[in-house]
């Protein structure tokens, strides 16, 4: 699952540059054994540097992939463009998306040729976040990804090297007026496929976008018109401070239930904008949470055998705001997202819903107390009425927040 509320997933007809299909996302990046308690995945080894065509520069060494790089990726989520801002019809979540602290895994997911990871490492890759959305009507999709690198010059050189590396298979250099970066266009069969690589300070913004013939460059220009200002306002953490980023800034970790299995890299704290990158309907949820004084969010996601779990904890000023959001979320699940209500034996009055998810089923239940609201998800069930896991987890989460 890509996020706490990112349950809906749609197939996409377009392919990423290296042939990786944009597809419904039920997979995640492997994470820590316990949330924010141990090292994140090991970065892949870099290939031998190529001979630079420009004078060499001093690249600030990236911090070792640890909890700190995972936390920095969650910070980057807040300034990664929401695809729906530019393309409101691209509502379906897809893969790849989420945090990437391993340049090799990012390369495999976004580029697929084994050479992009070494390019990123050579220019001081720290971590990244990606978004993916598609249009359920026509299958066209858009990826946005933001990577943090050593310094502005390194980001600029990485952008050009990645573009040069991807300029195969019918891609040709192109220009988008007002866009300071490298752009590639592939046009055939009534379809435009565009890749854009845009440095903004230490950050590198990447987009992969499919569109109707003759529309791709203009649409990528609009996408980057949203992305670039977000990055211009962002202050990346100095490399030597990444390991000491706070793991629980809002004091929510101990109030969030540990679900079974191994935790994924989606686990951890998010601010409001970061949380919205996990949301099904970020615009309505932004309005709802902002109006009710949202003060913090913590996610724990895990996988065990054939099941996946997600626990989300939201914090508000008082029970009044908690109850308002509790009711509104239940209404969204029922009326807007197509959930089928069911009654949980252990907490009969809890709003609980099940959904079809491919060939399996997905359950979500809510519980609130005082200034905290929690949701618990169980994904991968063979039957919608299999409540054994939820009947254990939801009461345990309630007990953590009821004082």
Automatic annotation (TrEMBL):
Signal peptide residues on this chain, from the entry's feature table: 1-23
Pfam families attached to this UniProt entry: DUF7373
Query: Can you name this protein?
Result: DUF7373 domain-containing protein
Source species, domain of life:
Bacteria
Q: Where is this region: Disordered?
A: 35-66, 234-260
UniProt-listed InterPro entries: DUF7373
Q: Which UniProt keywords apply?
A: Signal
Q: Where is the DUF7373 domain?
A: 61-246
**What is the scientific name of the source organism?**
Geodermatophilus amargosae
């Amino acid at each position: 699952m890509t996020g706490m509320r990112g349950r809906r997933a749609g197939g996409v007809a377009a392919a990423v540059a290296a042939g990786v299909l944009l597809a419904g996302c039920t997979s995640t990046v492997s994470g820590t054994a316990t949330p924010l308690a141990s090292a994140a995945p090991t970065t892949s080894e870099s290939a031998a540097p190529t001979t630079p065509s420009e004078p060499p520069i001093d690249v600030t060494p990236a911090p070792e992939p640890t909890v700190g790089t995972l936390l920095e990726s969650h910070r980057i989520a807040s300034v990664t463009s929401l695809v729906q801002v530019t393309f409101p019809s691209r509502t379906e979540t897809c893969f790849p998306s989420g945090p990437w602290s391993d340049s090799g895994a990012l390369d495999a997911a976004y580029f697929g040729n084994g050479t992009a990871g070494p390019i990123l490492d050579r220019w001081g890759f720290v971590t990244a976040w990606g978004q993916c959305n598609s249009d359920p009507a026509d299958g066209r999709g858009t990826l946005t990804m933001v990577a943090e690198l050593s310094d502005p010059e390194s980001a600029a050189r990485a952008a050009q090297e990645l573009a040069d590396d991807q300029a195969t298979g019918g891609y040709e250099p192109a220009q988008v007026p007002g866009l300071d970066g490298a752009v590639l266009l592939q046009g055939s069969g009534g379809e435009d496929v565009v890749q854009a690589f845009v440095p903004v300070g230490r950050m590198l913004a990447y987009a992969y976008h499919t569109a109707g013939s003759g529309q791709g460059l203009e649409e990528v220009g609009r996408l980057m018109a949203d992305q670039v200002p977000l990055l211009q306002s962002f202050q990346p953490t100095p490399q030597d401070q990444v390991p000491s980023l706070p793991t629980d800034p809002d004091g929510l970790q101990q109030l969030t239930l540990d679900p079974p299995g191994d935790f994924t890299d989606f686990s951890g704290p998010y601010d409001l904008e970061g949380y919205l990158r996990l949301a099904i309907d970020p615009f309505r949820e932004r309005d709802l949470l902002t109006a009710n004084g949202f003060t913090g969010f913590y996610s724990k996601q895990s996988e065990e055998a054939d099941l996946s779990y997600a626990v989300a904890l939201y914090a508000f000023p008082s029970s009044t705001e908690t109850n308002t959001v509790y009711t509104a979320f239940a209404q969204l699940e029922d009326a807007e997202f197509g959930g089928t209500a069911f009654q949980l034996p252990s907490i009969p009055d809890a709003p609980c819903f099940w959904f079809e998810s491919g060939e399996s089923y997905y359950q979500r239940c809510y519980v609130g107390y005082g200034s905290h609201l929690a949701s618990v998800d169980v994904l991968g069930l063979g039957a919608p009425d299999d409540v054994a896991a939820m009947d254990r987890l939801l009461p345990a989460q309630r007990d953590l927040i009821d004082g």
